Amino acid sequence: GTRPAERVPVTLYVDGEAVQKDTLVRLEPLKPETVNFRYTFPDPGSHSVHVTMDPDMLLADNSAYLALDVEELVKVLCVDGQQLAGPLKSEMDYFRQALSPTSAEELNAGRMPLQPEVINDSALPDVNLDNYRLVVLGNVALIPKDKIEALKQYVQRGGALWIWLGHRTNPAIYNADLGALLPCVIGEAVGNEEDHEVFDKLS
Fold it and tell me: How much is the pTM?
């Protein structure tokens, strides 16, 4: 309408049941507003969600609908560009430990619903990316052309991709092959990684 609305109730429905309510203090004409709901699904699987405002003269825009799949565990593919023998020696060891802790203290602090799978970069061509919600490339030197296209399609379908650089990554190759997936152009590394005196000590 052309007039502002005061104290507009907004209700969140999950699988047809009202689960949360909020109120928009003031809703201006032709101006978007945001209502934040936080809801934890008790069960994995497919769910329907919709948000509804109190009805007015134009009923068509009073509700918004969404269908989503809730997963019990989020699978994360960690592609290790330099796997080494021994504990906490490889590129992805600390990251995997952070995603899926094993010690009692870490478990008691609260375990995230994440299931990391670490593979060597040589195994990447044979992996079906659609089995994962997140793909992490850690210091991967080269990615086959067909897998680059698969990564582009994976991201376009909504998959998440993290790219971590390291001494094995070539900026020129990454810019040329992965430019469509990068947020910026990668420049050459500056400085001497062996010169530890240039870093400030925290303690």
Answer: 0.68
